[in-house]
Automatic annotation (TrEMBL):
This is DUF1533 domain-containing protein. InterPro entries: Shr-like_HID. It comes from the Bacteria. Pfam families: Shr-like_HID (PF07550). Residues 10-90 form the Heme-binding protein Shr-like Hb-interacting domain.
Amino acid sequence: MQHQHYLGSANVDSNFDVGYSEDTNWETKITTVTYNGTSLTETTDYTLNTVPNTITLIPGGGNSALQTAGTADLIISATGYGDASVSQIIGHGAVNKLAITTEPGAPAANGGDLN
């Protein structure tokens, strides 16, 4: 994966692509793909060449490594080649929880408005 480059804005909510220089022989010899030391499963966690010369990572595939915001190494191993790696940032997705930090106060009398 020489001259790898990141395409787009990676976050835990959406699939995202990491590009690499074209080498179809290398692609056919890929044996493992890991992110942050966790093995990824082809078609569930990633696909190859959906977009030419890219690996598409799939956070929605259920792998917690791809669902955790942060920076970690994406490492692709292929028989007969040195490991290809890139430090990949995965950002937070859209807010999906609401936290209430101030609870309403009791009403002055029964049936009254909350303070």
